[in-house]
Write a structure and sequence with these properties.
Chain lengths: ~400, ~400
C-alpha cells in the first residue's frame, strides 16, 4: 500500500513516486495546508483541478476541534473533508512549540524572521508567558481554544492520528528554537529520539498498513546533532522522514542545515521538509534531496491580496497597490489558473478594496496553482537534468 | 433586445420570460445580490451551476469604489466581473436612505425589523446624525468610504448607470421611512415622480436600446399614494417597474402595500420588489403579481452559518448549534446543491467553529441554491395552477 520509487535524479535532487492507500504523489511536491481539514475556501474539486496531490492537516488543532473521536465517527479525515487523495497529519510538535518557547522568544523556524527575542512580555521577564511544559513522558500544554490543560505523549499522538485516519502520520517531537543553546538542543533531541522509539513501538503494536509512520528529525542548527538525529532516525527504519525544528538563524544557514540532514537519511525513503515554502528555499531544499514541502504562505498571503508572480521581486505583488487600479492584465499573463484566465488585476484589486471574500478565493486559487505549477516545472527539470538552469532562471529575475 | 412575455397565470401570479441583451430570465426569479460586482465568494460558474439567472449590483457602492469610469474602461460590469448574464443596477436611492433617515431613525424597509426609533444618538436629539440632505435637484450625501461630499441627481444616476453598463437600470428615488408622516411621504413621492420624468428624459436623449430604464414606485404605506405613484409611473411608459421604499410597519401591511401597487401597474411590464427576500414574503408578493426579487439574506446569513431548510422554523437552522456536532446528514437531505451532495452538517459546523472561510462558501452555495430551487418550484406551480397549494405546503411546516 505504501511505497516510494525514485524515477530520476539530478545531482542530489530526486523525482519520484510516493504511493499511499489514497493514491500516488509525484515528487518533489507541494503539500497543501489544510490545518482544520479545509484548505481556505477551496473544495477538493478546486484542488484537484489545480493539480494538488496531497494535503497536510493538523493533529493539534483537530484534536482540540472537533476532536479525533468525532472525525473517526464521521469516517475519518478523508470522508469528513471530502478529499479523495493522500493526507498527512503532523504530530502537533510545531504547534506546541508555537505556544511555548516560540511564544516566549517570539521566534519561528528561522530566527531571521523575528531577528531577536522580543522586549515586550506579560510578566516583565522579557519573555512572553509559555503555555507549555515538557517532561520525559510528554508535553503538557494549555488549549488555546478553551484554556483547558492537555497532554500529548508519544503514544497518545499515535492514537489520535490513528483515529484521524491520515495516510501518513508523524512521531511526536519537541521543536527547539534558534535561540536554544547546544546543551538544551542536544537534551531535547535525545528526548525526541526516545519519543520516536516509543511512538514506533506503539504504532507497530497495531499496524494494519493503512497508515505509514514517519519520524521527525531534530537537532537544531548544530551539524553534529542534525547528523546524529538523521542517523538515529534512519536506524529505526521509518517509512519516511520529516525534517522539523529550528533551521538556524538565517536562510543561508537553513539551506546548510537541510543539506546536513538529508546526507544521513536513507536514500530510498521520502523526505518532507516541514513548514518551509519560500520559492528560493524550496529550490535549495529540492537540490539537497527533499521530496515534500508544506507551507501556509500561499493561502495566508492570499488573505491579504499578496499573489505570486514568477518574474517579480520576492515572487509576489500586492494586488491592493494603487498601480493595479486600472490594470487590465491578469495577475500573470503566462499563468493558466482559473483566476488568470478570467479576471483582471483591476477587478481583483477592487474586490480586496471592497473587502469582498471572492477576492480571497481568487487570490488563493492563483497562489496554490502557482506552487503546483512550480513543482511541475521542478519535476520535469529533474527528469531532464536541468534543475540548476531552472533555478537560475527563476532566481535571477527575482532579485 | 428587451421584452417581457407572460406565459402562464395563476390568479394574479404570473410566470414569464424577461428578455435582455445578455439573455433571458424565467420569472418569477430571485436576483442574486452582487453589491460590489461580486456575489460573496461565488464565481459566475458557481452561480450558473445553481441556476442563477440575473445579478443586481449597486450604483451607490460602485460609484464610490472603484468608480463608474474605471468599470467603463474595463469593458463594463459584465466584462469586469465576468458574468455573462443579465445585470440590474439600482439607482442608489435605498443606500442613501440607509445613510440618511434610515440611520436617523434606525429603521429598514419594514419598521417591525426595528420596532421603534432608537433612543441612542450622537447629538442627544434622539436621532443619529444623517449624512444626507435632499432638495428638488437631487441628493447630497457624504461618502461612507472617505467622507467626501457627493451628489446624485436624476440625470447623474442615468450617466453613472450608462457607464456601469447593466442591462436594466433604475430611476433615482427618495426612499421614505415607515415613520415618515403622510405629508412628507406625499411631498417626497411627488419629487420622486419629477425625478423619474427627468431621468427618463435624460435616458431617451441617447437610448441605444442596450439598456432598459425601469421606474421606481414610491408612496410609503399609504394606499392612495401607492396607487397614485403606480398610476403616474405607468403613464410614463417605463420598460419595467421596481417597487421601493417603505412597505409599512408590519409584514401583513407590507403584503397589503405590495398588492395596492401591483394593481395599478401595467399588466404587461415586469415588476421587481426591491430588497425583499423572506420566503413567506416572496410567496405573498408572487401572488400579488411580482416577478423579480433581490435580497441580501441568502449571502448575509451564510456568513454566520445560518442556512435555509425548507421544513424548519423560519426556514433556517444555525449550523453552529451544538446539536449538529456529530450530524452526518447534509443540511437538507432532499437538496441537490453542491454542499448537500458532498458534506455533512458536522463538517460544516466544524468549519464555522474553526472560522474556516470554506464554511461560508459552502453555506452560501446552499442558500443561493435554495432560493433558486424555490423559484423553480414557484414557476412550475404557476404553470400548473397550484401556487396556493405550494405556498400552503411550505408555510404550514415552518410555523
Amino acid at each position: 500500500m505504501f511505497g516510494f520509487e525514485i524515477i530520476a535524479r539530478d545531482r542530489k535532487a530526486r523525482a519520484g513516486t510516493l504511493t499511499t492507500p489514497h493514491g500516488t504523489v509525484a515528487t518533489p511536491s507541494f503539500v497543501a495546508v489544510g490545518t482544520h481539514a479545509a484548505v481556505q475556501a477551496l473544495s477538493s474539486e478546486d484542488l484537484l483541478m489545480m493539480g494538488t496531490q496531497v494535503i497536510i492537516a493538523n493533529t493539534y488543532h483537530l484534536h482540540l476541534n472537533p476532536g479525533e473521536g468525532l472525525i473517526k465517527k464521521m469516517g475519518g479525515l478523508h470522508a469528513f473533508m471530502g478529499w479523495p487523495g493522500p493526507v498527512v497529519t503532523d504530530s502537533g510538535g510545531f504547534q506546541i512549540f508555537s505556544l511555548g518557547i516560540g511564544k516566549e522568544q517570539g521566534v519561528g523556524k528561522i530566527a531571521s524572521i523575528f531577528p531577536a527575542p522580543p522586549e515586550n512580555s506579560s510578566d516583565g521577564s522579557g519573555k512572553r508567558k509559555s503555555m507549555v511544559s515538557v517532561d520525559e513522558e510528554g508535553i503538557t500544554f494549555t488549549s488555546h481554544c478553551d484554556g483547558t490543560p492537555r497532554r500529548f505523549t508519544p503514544e497518545g499522538v499515535i492514537h489520535i492520528q490513528r483515529r484521524l485516519g491520515a495516510d501518513i502520520i508523524l512521531t511526536l517531537d519537541e521543536c527547539t528554537s534558534p535561540y536554544h543553546d547546544y546543551d538544551y538542543t542536544r537534551q531535547s533531541m535525545e528526548r525526541t529520539h526516545r519519543w520516536a522509539v516509543r511512538g514506533l513501538e506503539e504504532f507497530r503494536r497495531d499496524d494494519s498498513r493503512h497508515q505509514a509512520l514517519w519520524g521527525v528529525v531534530q537537532g537544531g542548527a548544530y551539524r553534529d546533532l542534525r547528523e546524529e538525529s538523521a542517523v538515529f532516525m534512519k536506524q529505526q527504519g521509518f517509512d519516511g522522514y520529516a525534517v522539523g525544528g529550528s533551521l538556524g538563524k538565517t536562510k543561508d544557514q537553513m539551506i546548510q542545515v537541510v543539506g546536513w540532514k538529508t546526507q544521513s537519511l536513507p536514500e530510498q525513503a521520502p523526505r518532507h521538509l516541514l513548514g518551509i515554502g519560500e520559492v528560493e528555499d524550496m529550490f535549495a531544499a529540492v537540490e539537497a534531496g527533499i521530496d515534500l514541502f508544506d507551507c501556509v504562505a500561499p493561502t495566508l498571503l492570499a488573505r491579504t491580496g499578496t499573489v505570486y508572480v514568477g518574474k517579480s521581486k520576492r515572487f509576489r505583488i500586492h494586488i491592493r497597490n494603487a498601480r493595479f487600479r486600472d490594470d487590465q492584465k491578469p495577475i500573470e499573463e503566462t499563468c493558466g489558473c482559473y483566476t488568470c484566465s478570467r479576471y483582471s488585476r483591476a477587478y481583483l484589486r477592487h474586490l480586496f478594496m471592497a473587502r469582498e471574500p471572492f477576492g480571497i478565493r481568487l487570490a488563493t486559487l492563483h497562489n496554490v496553482y502557482f506552487m503546483e505549477s512550480l513543482f511541475r516545472l521542478i519535476r520535469t527539470a529533474i527528469k531532464e537534468g536541468r534543475l540548476e538552469r531552472l533555478k537560475k532562471e527563476w532566481l535571477s529575475v527575482s532579485h
